[in-house]
Automatic annotation (TrEMBL):
Any GO MF annotation of the entry: mechanosensitive monoatomic ion channel activity
First-listed, main subcellular location of the protein, grouped into a coarse class: membrane
Membrane-spanning segments: 208-234, 246-270, 290-309, 337-357, 363-383
InterPro entries on file: LSM_dom_sf, MscS_beta-dom_sf, MscS_channel_2nd
Keywords from the named record: Membrane, Signal, Transmembrane, Transmembrane helix
Mechanosensitive ion channel MscS domain residues: 386-452
Signal peptide range in chain numbering: 1-22
Name this protein carries in UniProt: Mechanosensitive ion channel
Length: 568
């Protein structure tokens, strides 16, 4: 059954290829004939002197072509290229020159493995998995790679063709040959490279020439030098604007991203101007270079956005904490959430641009891993906590359970919300300490928001007094305090309550309302001090029994030893 499906799939491919073959003047061989492109004529320099190229299989073509190129035998290498369209569309270009330029492009800009090519005339891949839809299917065209010209993508392709009365041969296609001059102008050596001595242009190892081995460290040194000079220049400018808070803040944020951009930009400019490294090295450096540039640009944008926002909120911290400034607190909190959303969008856009611009999704390894879902699983697993924290911080901002400038009671500490970040909140305690609380912990636990709707706060002082204390005697001093203290906003709302009792003492609560938590704290301390002073005064006046005591005492039981002995 599977064999029938493969035959059906091959027939479908052949049917789809018929229109294109007819338009190009080619006929597809049918029946028992070899699977080839039938051409009117094949102009491939087959009469060149020397040992002929092995054009019977794709592997043989590439191995013999690259061997002829390494020997600078361009006349023999030209036998592996179909020059039909070159001579009719590009005048004045010799076959030897096209062969040399094609060899340079293959060696410099296209990554392929000769050993991975089929070593059969029909190009059937016997090494691939049976799940591959092309497994066991004959081919007459193989794409080795693609190079990008302005506005179009150009494939480097080999094809199996046959001229009337000739044998089927594997050659570089006529379309590929016609595109070689334009590709060479874009991806070939620069004028600087051409001026180097021939010895430096000889291959050293892998696909690197000697000049590339020397040039790569020089490029890195030039980029590092540019980055160092940029770092020093920004530091000098920062010193000039040290007294200007906004500019100093912005320059501080830009310091490292601009340095990184100088490194990546210099690296890219020097490579594009003087050095065009070969294929495998280029394939490795291009995504890395692009990643550094994108990281630097995104870092600059995010740094400017973050620093300006931080500067605005830090300068207005005291104003935002004002009791009646609820509207501004809500505005800056929403602005903080929008900033985080913009940051997330920029990061996603940068990742998407990196994947598209570097064409990572076209690589074999990436495709295999992505098809298995491994990359997605790894990214989701690694980022689950971060993504959760980001969503929690946005939830806080839009639900406004806590706003920038709000007074909250969290983990037994009275704090002001100073900043809502991606993963952490920065809280300032009453004694000017900073508490860094994870967003997940803050959202997942209970906390008191003392300024959610009404900044006024009922403050209370609890004192442990002797069970014999006359609470009524303390109401007068308490009433005098609440009527005369400037931070008590509603004396009629103040009260004295006995809220607990034990064998040792009773607990008396004194309550009064303050305008906001900050005033309430100082009023709370004054109230405690005042009531302790009054309790001590009343306690000192009760030195004769049976007058009541006010301050709690440890009770002692004295036993008369004589009475005990008599009883014994």
């Amino acid at each position: 059954m599977s064999h029938c499906l493969k035959l059906l799939f091959a027939a479908l491919l052949a049917c789809l290829a018929l229109p294109a073959a007819a338009q190009s003047g080619r006929d597809v061989a049918q029946g028992s004939e070899a699977y080839v492109y039938e051409v009117d004529s094949l102009q491939n320099g087959a009469g060149a002197p020397g040992a002929p190229l092995d054009l019977e299989t794709p592997m043989g073509l590439l191995e013999s072509f690259m061997a002829a190129g390494r020997a600078d035998d361009w006349a023999r290498a030209a036998a592996g290229i179909d020059f039909t369209d070159v001579e009719t569309q590009v005048d004045g270009v010799s076959r030897e020159r096209v062969a040399a330029e094609l060899y340079d492009l293959l060696n410099r800009s296209v990554s392929f493995s000769t050993s991975a090519l089929p070593d059969r005339p029909d190009a059937v891949d016997t090494q691939t998995s049976s799940k591959d839809p092309m497994a066991g299917v004959a081919r007459r065209s193989i794409t080795l790679g693609r190079l990008e010209l302005p506005g179009r993508s150009v494939p480097i392709r080999i094809a199996r063709v046959r001229a009337p009365g000739g044998e089927p041969l594997w050659v570089f296609s006529r379309q590929t040959a016609a595109n070689v001059p334009a590709l060479y102008d874009r991806f070939g050596p620069t004028k600087f490279e051409k001026s180097l001595p021939p010895a430096l242009r000889q291959q050293a190892f892998w696909t690197l020439a000697w000049w590339e081995v020397i040039a790569l460290p020089l490029i890195l040194i030039a980029a590092a030098l540019a980055a160092a000079l940029t770092y020093l220049a920004v530091r000098r400018v920062r010193k000039k604007f040290a007294e200007d808070g906004l500019w100093e803040t912005v320059l501080q944020a830009l310091h490292l991203p601009v340095t990184l951009l100088a490194f990546a930009g210099t690296f890219a400019i020097v490579r594009a101007t003087f050095f065009r490294l070969s294929g495998p090295v280029k394939d490795l450096l291009d995504p890395l270079q692009l990643l550094l540039v994108i990281a630097a640009v995104v870092g600059i944008l995010l740094s400017i956005l973050g620093r300006i926002f931080d500067f605005a909120t830090e300068k207005r911290t005291r104003e935002l904490e004002a009791p009646g400034n609820n509207e501004d607190r809500a505005f800056y909190t929403k602005l903080s959430a929008i900033r985080r959303i913009v940051t997330a969008v920029l990061m996603l856009a940068a990742v998407g641009f990196l994947l598209v611009a570097s064409d990572l999704n076209s690589t074999l390894g990436f495709s295999i891993i992505a098809s298995a879902g491994v990359i997605g699983l790894v990214l989701v697993f690694a980022a689950r906590q971060v993504l959760g924290d980001m969503m929690a911080s946005v939830q806080i901002a839009f639900a406004q359970t806590a706003k920038i400038g709000d007074a909250v009671y969290f983990n037994d500490q009275w704090c002001y919300v100073e900043k809502i970040g991606f993963t952490h909140l920065r809280l300032r305690t009453w004694d000017e300490k900073r508490v860094i609380a994870p967003v997940a912990d803050f959202v997942g636990s209970c906390f008191e928001n003392w300024t959610k709707r009404d900044p006024s706060l009922m403050m209370h002082v609890e004192l442990e007094l002797d069970n014999r204390a006359d609470v009524e005697a303390l109401r007068g001093p308490f009433r005098s305090f609440v009527e005369n203290d400037e931070d008590v906003i509603d004396p009629d709302d103040a009260s004295v309550q006995v809220v607990g009792q034990s064998a040792k003492a009773m607990v008396v609560r004194f309550m009064a309302r303050a305008e906001d938590p900050k005033c309430g704290w100082t009023m709370h301390c004054r109230l405690r001090e005042h009531m302790l002073k009054e309790a001590a005064r009343l306690d000192a006046a009760s030195d004769r029994e049976p007058a009541p005591a006010f301050l709690a005492r440890e009770r002692e039981v004295r036993m008369d030893m004589t009475a005990e002995e008599d009883a014994a």
